């Protein structure tokens, strides 16, 4: 994997630095519900401030269609100030004269936060006019948003094409952790995949299967693979269009590496209080659906994780938000936390699960980016990272 330009390569003393962070956090009644990503953004901001830079932060939040007052970054700015212990001035626009005036008026003690970048139609289109306006705000640029590095947006690619740029500490940490799994990982190398849809993970399955020693599959996606084995899966989630494809994987050269649940927790409806019980995966009732892996499968998965030297996990084993169907995800999380191997959890629901279980401090690396991490492990080139490469020898 390419070597990225680092913060140390930028002359930031007395300069204004635009930092693209990933502050896309969940909100509850207008308040930040989980500040994991805000806390993860702090090391880069603090280093730049410590070196005498004026820091301007930008980020998206949610998926607005134009300006949406419920997705303004004010609560995020307040939590950043609280966690960082420094003043944060929130600007009501993304770029333009008002933003330029706010940046000019601030001193290095204050962090300036721009408005939700996706309020601007040009953000997702990597519009050159917006990229120019953002570049005018700063002397140099730092991409620290790994979670959006797989998007060719104005704030991930456009600005980096215009002013001296480098990777932030979080982005560098993310790339280094995943590079350790792409090169020559310590073995045995185990990948655990879950979540609802096989189609979301098929590319990473195909890319990683020849490279891993074991691939453990749970969550809703496992039922498509069980169906491909010819098992009756009742009312469980299945992607019929994927059955033949995953059947080819199971029957292929590396199919023996895939480990599927031998027992599952089935329920009579998709509800937190549904009637449920454990059954063999080969004997699922036709009027019930699988919502978690069963206790025997948990132990089998745990044994594989215990023996591993490198582990990557993306996707819960069941509907972990509901206590009745949390045991599989909790068992995998506990096994990762207890193993001595190098462990990486890849964003999204897996991070939510490990945080819910309060075991994140026992994981080698908890990623802030789900989709970006999967694309990197699929062998894809991420546009945000590619945009930084031009500056590595500058």
Quick overview of this protein structure:
It contains 14 helices and 17 strands. Helix 8 crosses helix 9 and helix 10 packs parallel to helix 11.
What topology does this entry show?
Layout: E1 16-20, E2 27-28, E3 31-32, H1 36-50, E4 54-58, H2 74-84, E5 88-90, H3 97-105, E6 111-113, H4 128-135, E7 140-143, H5 154-158, E8 165-167, H6 169-182, E9 189-193, H7 202-208, E10 214-217, H8 222-228, H9 240-251, E11 258-259, E12 263-267, E13 276-280, E14 289-293, H10 295-306, E15 310-314, H11 327-338, E16 342-345, H12 348-356, E17 365-366, H13 370-377, H14 383-388
Parallel strand pairs: 1-4, 1-7, 4-6, 5-6, 7-8, 9-10, 9-15, 10-11, 15-16, 16-17
Antiparallel strand pairs: 2-3, 12-13, 12-14
Helix pairs in contact: 1-2, 8-9, 10-11
What does this structure look like?
This protein is an alpha/beta fold and 394 residues long. The strands form 4 sheets. It has a 6-stranded parallel sheet. The chain folds into 2 domains: 7-172, 3-Layer(aba) Sandwich (Rossmann fold); 184-377, Phosphoglycerate kinase, N-terminal domain (Rossmann fold). 34% of the residues lie in helices and 16% in strands. The protein has helices at residues 36-50, 74-84, 97-105, 128-135, 154-158, 169-182, 202-208, 222-228, 240-251, 295-306, 327-338, 348-356, 370-377, 383-388, and strands at residues 16-20, 27-28, 31-32, 54-58, 88-90, 111-113, 140-143, 165-167, 189-193, 214-217, 258-259, 263-267, 276-280, 289-293, 310-314, 342-345, 365-366. Helix 1 (36-50) packs across helix 2 (74-84) and helix 8 packs across helix 9 (240-251).
